[in-house]
Amino acid sequence: MKIQGIYFRRKAVMNSLIKEQTNRIASGEEVNSFLDYLLCEAKTLTMEHITIFVWEAILEAADTLVTTECAMYELAQNRQGLLYVEIKNVCGSDKITEEHLSQLPYLNAVFHETLRKHSPASVALFRYAHEDTQLGGYYIPAGTEIALNIYGCNRDKNEWESPEEWKPERFHRTRRNVIQRIFTRPWRLELERGPALGFEWRQPRGGEEEHDDTATFTIHKLHPLHAIVKPRNHYSLVS
After folding, report:
1. How many other CB atoms are found less than 10 A from the CB of residue 148?
2. Alpha-carbon span 75 to 83, nearest angstrom
3. What pTM, to 2 d.p., does this model score?
4. What's a GO biological-process term for it (predicted)?
5. Domain regions of the chain by residue span
6. 8-state DSSP, 147
7. How far apart are CA 121 and CA 105, in angstroms?
């Protein structure tokens, strides 16, 4: 029912936006946006196609650093020794490059575990079934819109041990199967490498662990990150 509610709210918002833009174009105003272009030039697209294209652009542009903030939060809550030592042992006094990434398994485990516990979005973009199909033993008729519950998949106790805990070791010590890798969406989080190497993160004295999340276009911490950042005693290794 919640997913249905999301669908109908999204549809109402997008229909209103499309109607407003259509009226602007009809009045002779300048075409100056992605939506304007779709309405004017993409004659073969249906209104449903246009809705999906615009919604996808909105989601992908919203809160692009939300997962980085969550990683910084988790690093402040947990000891960072393993990550720091790994980077120092592999890179030494050199800057981190793409060639180093395959030699930094714990760093990549931090990425995957952060994306698992703190998925940027709780539900994936809707997918449209153009023809009748079978999916996971279920019959999906043509015309159905399908939404993947990313949050539920990443917190499933049948698939993950202690899913509420942030434990990069779950990706470091074993090879997770392909499906679990897909759920965590291994995006590049380049910004994390500098803070992890150049600084020590910790909670302010008396600070308590914060579990609350909230959602707009993306899932993010209900309260802003507060952490004490201490420079490490070495030259910066990240440009």
Report:
1. 15
2. 10
3. 0.60
4. gibberellin biosynthetic process
5. 2-60, 66-122+150-231
6. -
7. 25
